[in-house]
Amino acid sequence: MTEIGPAPRHPGWRERWLALRNRLVASPGFQRWAAGFPLTRRIAQRNTRALFDLCAGFVYAQVLFACVRLDLFGLLRAGPLGPEAIAHRLGLSPERGLTLLRAATSLGLIARLPDGRFALADLGAALIGNPSIALMIEHHAMLYADLADPVALLRGEAGATRLAGYWPYADAGNAGSIHPESVAAYSRLMAASQALIADDVLDALPLAGRTCLMDVGGGEGVFLTHAARRHPDLALRLLDLPPVAERAAARFAAEGIGDRVTCFGQTFLDGPLPTGADAISLVRVIHDHDDAAALAILRAVHAALPPGGLVVIAEPMAGTGGAEPVGDAYFGFYLLAMGSGRPRRVEELAGMLAQAGFAAIREKSTRRPLLARLIVAVR
Ligand SMILES: C[S@@+](CC[C@H](N)C(=O)[O-])C[C@H]1O[C@@H](n2cnc3c(N)ncnc32)[C@H](O)[C@@H]1O
User: Fold this and answer.
1) pLDDT tens, position by position, 172-186
2) Which terminus of the chain is more solvent-facing, meaning fewer CB atoms within 10 Å of its CB: N or C?
3) Which segments of the protein form a coiled coil according to its record (predicted)?
4) What is the whole-number distance in angstroms between the Cα of residue 329 and the centre of ligand 1?
């Protein structure tokens, strides 16, 4: 019989220590002892809580979803209200209303005042300030439906997913023939959420001395609208699928900057990109595409830039310190359900930029790396 796989090797000290530790932690007797022993009690309690939170994560998300769907935060915007009044306004019985209010309080979304009324807490107030987060939460209904059987999804046996329908360009072969109705929902969501990151990206973007910025996969043009305000002398171009580019042109006209921006309605997966810009941005674009397509986009950007031209990748990335589950767990499974792309680490993106011919590749720090990190490089 032929054995498949690498030859057996002797485990190093780290592997042996991990094996010993895991055997101990897995033992019910040790768990009970650790939960009572003063030096390990806090660690044991923290681990129990962390494990419980992982089990309950879906429930917490559904509590949030119910608050958003019922517009609880909008209701409390004007000030605190008593539980009966809230239940009545949400169309719930007093008991069910209280179930929701207690759950939302425990999650830090709202707070119970000493007189028994409920008010917005930090997280609920933050949601009021960023309406795009509520849109994000609402569209997660599709993600949760797609994740109902994560093993089938991982094995490629889940069939057509809802997110693949929501993001029709995820089927790359389809990209050139997408109808205006099928881009409306995702374009609205992207336009609303772009407001969260545009200024962070522009703060970090070295545009001094550049004359023309082309935003590739620029959506409805919110990023370029912010760029136009900051850089009055910069010529601007947007490239996206034809029905999305039309939506962008309408926005630029409504914002009074229609004469400053040229819109190109075409796919970036097929044929060369327009030349003439000395800076090209890819904001939340590369993570949507599998490796071969992502590299093809970077090569097309390289070919469209003059020598010395600047490319910018801005998106949430895997391995972001303090936000590891956002990249690898959330975006990893989101993009899996969507059927295209993956979150990449800074080093992976830097490697792809080098493969596409770029030099002087470096990361520029952003205010909220969880939402968008930024890598720049020069042709
Ligand atoms: C996740 S959205 C990001 C939009 C925008 N950059 C933002 O951050 O709000 C990705 C964008 O890439 C565009 N896109 C996807 N595939 C494309 C293709 N093959 N050619 C041109 N644009 C494409 C989509 O229409 C969409 O507007």
Assistant:
1) 777 778 889 999 999
2) N
3) none
4) 22
Higher pLDDT, 176 or 118: 118
Strands (E), the chain: 110-112, 118-120, 212-216, 235-240, 261-265, 279-283, 310-315, 359-364, 373-378
Atom number of ligand 1 nearest to Cα 222: 9
Q: CB–CB of 193/135 below 8 Å?
A: yes
- Supply the pTM of this predicted model: 0.90
| Residue 312 contacts residue 204 (beta carbons within 8 Å) | no
CA distance 192 to 127: 13
pLDDT for position 31: 84
3-state per-residue secondary structure call for 181-215: HHHHHHHHHHHHHHHHHHHHHHHHCCCCCCCEEEE
Which backbone phi and psi does 210 adopt, to 5 degrees? -85, 150
Exposed (0-12), middle (13-18) or buried (19+): which is 184, by Cβ within 10 Å? middle
- Indicate the top mutation candidate among 284, 338, 340 to test ligand 1's pocket, ranked by most ligand atoms within 8 A of CB: 284
